[in-house]
Design a protein that fits this description.
CATH class: Mainly Beta
CATH architecture: Beta Barrel
Distance between the termini: 58 Å
Oligomer: single chain
CATH topology: Maltoporin, Chain A
Structural class: mainly beta
Strand content: over 45%
Shape: globular
CATH superfamily: TonB-dependent receptor, beta-barrel domain
Length: 717
């Protein structure tokens, strides 16, 4: 079957390119506009799941965390960590959500991960305040970006000046020390425009002895040096200081106080600088774009050492271990507490940059319409991992326990052809990746240092088809190869040796329908199947957190997702609107002959994958009794999940195994607009009923965010 897919894909792409070349002499009367920085511009041609959160919808959500926005997208699972979306954990269609490493996240088409090829874990996320829209793309369109093509692409869209003068000011304040001030100034000038925005944000996180203060600023300037051309410069600056811990709670600690945090001296600091320069040129029926980009991220996480203590039945407190073990064991009554004589500074530096060229052309040969997108990218990145062990909780100097440099360079090329005939659109594409890895361990061989090198390449095809059966509905289907490269440390070990760790590979299938049966009613229903030939999992497991990975073999994900939009004003003349997103994932299991990483003697074939809830539901109800008034309620339901590959049901004393129970959270918003002055007054309640729930068990129990009430004023002219 896989060989057949490749044959069909190659035939379709070759045929399309030959026809396109044969039409070069034909007259093309259309003038193609300069594209924006969105990933997918033409929904009707997309042979896979696609969600576009428009600027209006994005604003109406009145979210304080990007997690609240993404929960409204079918197929997307958010595992909360801090309650403010500082470190988001996104899983799509049952894939592991840890650090969002299975998802390609972009801002205006540029990756935001610290090192997109060699270390995609997301320890930084841009503030949601600077976005104006979100695209979530599944299916074959992922091959135009990469390197990950497994779960999906999430692209955040930032604003360009749309008026001669534009001002925005938003001031928010609320419970749990929440506060934010966001300002934007935009203006147009002859032949261009500029936008400057800035943000200060603070607040307590989801536990005691935690908090954050961050600054963010962005400048975007564009000019038109010639007719049909645009030059865009974008610069970003982000600075964060957080009191944030890594350790979760044991079962005994959670029962005593679910929001406690004994590690009050843990700190997390992030600095990030990024920029891109993009040149666009509109051609007759096409366009060319050339983008240079780069970013530097500095992440310093100081974590106090830990020790394990057990309270015996007679009330005595006994020290079990003081070795800072990642796994505290499962002694009844076990507690993980701070060690006053140790702190570890995990100091990380990341640099990446690249150059990408992209060409798009529209052609017609007889009754066939073509849209070809092709391009290439050269990308390089470097990491420096440095760890210091201090001899006190507040110490910031000490012995060096890690000094490691890692590099990845990649060259990629891609092409995708949309071929339309009457009601049919066939899309065929391919992406080629060539990646070189290098690692230098400065502490290896007794301090003399040791190096290692390796290389891998991949060919990633995609095929999709859309049938527009009527103006009101269309059917789509697609198949593409999923690919995710391994991290540098997973293919080159500390001694410089090359490990036999393969990239993650899968075949991803989709079948769906998009329909607008009548005015005011829209839906998209998609069935999906992710069949992994090789999925990467931890080699040793302490509740799911480890640095060493291994080939896991086959896994299977199958389910259905639904997006629904019912506009009562258009449908029934009522001032109501209902938006829904539902995901049913009945199959997310280990395939083949599989054994547990917790207990290698236990066979886990057929067990459910951790952190893959069977169902999710997001529902939004909007009521507009008057044009100026919006009353909104958002319901989020998440089904139960397993926290380990053994599918342990009962909670273990260390808090890291056992079911994660289902939970339901309700948010509410009241918005009053004063259009004469361009002012909006907003009252928001997050987790209105103050539901206590377990969000995560990977490193101990982490609770979800308790209730937060926020009031705000928004002014826009």
């Amino acid at each position: 079957m896989r060989r057949g897919v490749l044959v069909v894909w190659c035939s379709a792409l070759a045929w399309s390119l030959v026809l396109a070349q044969g039409s070069e002499g034909q007259d093309t009367m259309r003038t193609y506009r300069l594209p924006g920085v969105q990933v997918v511009e033409e929904r009707v041609q997309h042979g896979g799941g696609l969600t576009w959160i428009s600027p209006q919808r994005y604003e109406e959500l009145h979210a304080v965390s990007i997690e609240e926005v993404l929960r409204t997208v079918p197929g997307v699972y958010l595992r909360p960590e801090d309650g403010m979306g500082l470190r988001v954990n996104i899983g799509i269609r049952g894939l592991s959500p840890t650090r969002s490493e299975k998802v390609l996240l972009l801002e205006d088409g540029i990756p935001i991960a610290p090192a997109p090829y060699g270390y995609p874990e997301l320890y930084y996320h841009p503030p949601m305040e600077r976005f104006r829209g979100v695209e979530v793309v599944k299916g074959g369109a992922q091959i135009l970006y990469g390197p990950q093509t497994i779960g999906g692409v999430i692209n955040y869209v930032t604003p360009l000046p749309v008026r001669e003068r534009q001002w925005e000011l938003r001031v928010m304040g609320g419970s749990r020390r929440y506060g934010s001030v966001y300002g934007l100034v935009g203006f147009r000038f002859p032949g261009g425009g500029a936008v400057l925005d800035g943000l200060y944000k603070q607040g307590q996180l989801n536990r005691e002895n935690t908090g954050v203060g961050l600054w963010d600023g962005a400048l975007k300037v564009w000019v038109q040096p010639a007719q049909g051309q645009r030059l865009l410069l974008k610069l970003d600056l982000y600075s964060e200081r957080s009191q944030a811990t890594y350790a979760g709670l044991t079962q005994a600690q959670f029962e005593e106080n679910p929001f406690q945090n004994p590690f009050r001296h843990d700190t997390f600091a992030v600095e990030r600088y990024a920029g891109q320069l993009r040149w666009e040129w509109a051609l007759p029926a096409g366009s060319v774009a050339l983008t240079a980009y780069g970013a530097h991220l500095q992440r310093d996480w100081w974590r106090q050492g830990s020790m394990v203590r057990v309270q015996t039945p007679d009330g005595r407190d006994t020290l079990v271990s003081a070795d800072n073990s990642a796994d505290p064991g499962n002694y009844p009554g076990v507690r993980v507490l701070p060690d006053p004589n140790r702190a570890d500074g995990r100091l990380r530096r990341y640099w990446f940059g690249g150059l990408e060229g992209r060409w798009e052309q529209r052609l017609q040969t007889g009754s066939l319409q073509h849209r070809l997108v092709a391009g290439a990218r050269f990308h390089g990145e470097r990491q420096h991992r440095y760890q210091i062990r201090a001899q006190s909780a507040l110490g910031r100097t000490g012995s060096i326990v890690e000094d490691d440099w890692r590099w990845a360079t990649a060259a990629s090329a891609f092409a995708q052809e949309h071929l339309s005939w009457r009601a049919w659109t066939l899309t065929a594409g391919v992406r080629a990746e060539s990646i070189r890895y290098r690692r230098f361990n400065a502490l290896g061989q007794g301090g003399d240092g040791v190096s290692g090198y390796t290389h891998l390449w991949a060919l990633i095809p995609a095929l999709g088809i859309v049938w527009q059966g009527a103006p009101e509905w269309s059917l789509f289907a697609g198949v593409h190869a999923g690919f995710a490269p391994p991290r540098v440390e997973d293919v080159i070990d500390n001694a410089g040796g090359v490990t036999e760790l393969d990239p993650e590979r899968s075949w991803n299938w989709e079948l769906g329908v998009r329909a607008t049966p009548q005015r005011g009613l829209q839906l998209e229903l998609t069935a999906f199947r992710l069949d992994f030939r090789n999925q990467i999992i931890p080699a040793t497991l302490a509740g799911g957190v480890t640095s060493a990975l291994t080939n896991a073999g086959r896994t299977l994900h199958q389910g259905v997702e639904l997006a629904l939009d019912v506009d009562g004003a258009q449908l029934l003349g009522l001032p109501l609107r209902v938006l829904g997103a539902a995901t049913w994932l009945p199959v997310a299991r280990y395939q083949g002959e599989r054994f547990s990483v917790l207990n290698p003697s236990v066979r886990i074939t057929g067990n459910r994958l951790p952190y893959a809830p069977e169902y999710q539901l997001s529902g939004t109800l909007q009521w507009r009794p008057r044009k100026e008034l919006l009353v909104q309620a958002v319901l989020t339901m998440v089904g139960s999940q397993f926290a380990d590959d053994l599918n342990t049901e009962e909670p273990t004393p260390n808090g890291r195994q056992g079911r994660v129970p289902p939970y339901t959270v309700v948010d509410g918003t009241l918005e009053w607009s004063l259009p004469r002055w361009g002012v909006k007054l907003v009252l928001m309640g997050k987790n209105l009923f103050d539901r206590l729930y377990i969000a995560d068990r990977t490193r101990g129990i982490v609770p979800g965010m308790p209730r937060r009430v926020v009031v705000g004023v928004e002014w826009e002219r």
